[in-house]
Amino acid sequence: MQRLALYNNEINGTLPQSIGFLTSLTTFALFNNKLSGTIPQSIGKMTSLTNIQLHHNLLEGTIPEIIGNLTLLQDLSISYNQLSGTIIDVGRLISLDILDLSVNHFSGTIPQSIGNLTVITALDISVNRISGFIPESIGNLINLIYLDLNSNNLIGSIPQSLGNLINRGYMDLHNNNLIGSVPEFLGKLNLFYLDLSSNSLTGSIPSSLSNLTFYLDLSSNQLTGEIPKSFEDFKIPYLDISSTRIIGMIPNLSPKIFS
């Protein structure tokens, strides 16, 4: 057997240790069920796996460290569970395209080894209890299109290395404890979605952010100064700069901002 797909059912109970005998399996897809208990250590014997999709279940406990040895993995999606503990060392998972750990109870810091995942396009660790700084090594992820770290306890400033992420995409860092200024380079990353709301960011709004094409939320920060004149040519459908310390006149916003 190479593919086991039992998703979108009402399957309950736990994952048996015997899954480790499925050494030829490449896809293990049991998402959208009612599975409980822990992820068994025997999953580390499934060395042919390219896809582990266990999201939207009731799984608890920690991620087995041995998953870090499954070097063929392209998709590790275990979001919307009740998993806890720290994020394992993912540095050897160099084939990962998707890493989704969102909406769990993970704590600790984002490992520096995440910078080894240079082919990854989607990284989601949102809605957890992650603390510490955003690692500079995230700037190595030059193929990243989707980055979501919202609703954690991240501190420090937005790292300059994020300026290496040149692909048009999505970045959500809202509801953390980030400080410092909003970097000018964020407006040069071909982003269509940027949410930095509910942090403690200071300074002025970079004029380059008028380059965004769909969504910009800077609300609930400590930003000062005026809305940049470049926003007169803004063509974005969603703009939120509420609950900041912005002063001055409202610029002559383009009608396209409201269309």
UniProtKB/TrEMBL annotation:
It is a single-pass membrane protein. The keyword Signal applies. It is found in: Cell membrane; Membrane. It holds the Pfam family LRR_1. The keyword Cell membrane applies. SUPFAM superfamilies: RNI-like. GO terms for cellular component: plasma membrane. Keywords: Cell membrane, Leucine-rich repeat, Membrane, Repeat, Signal. This is Uncharacterized protein. It comes from Arcella intermedia.
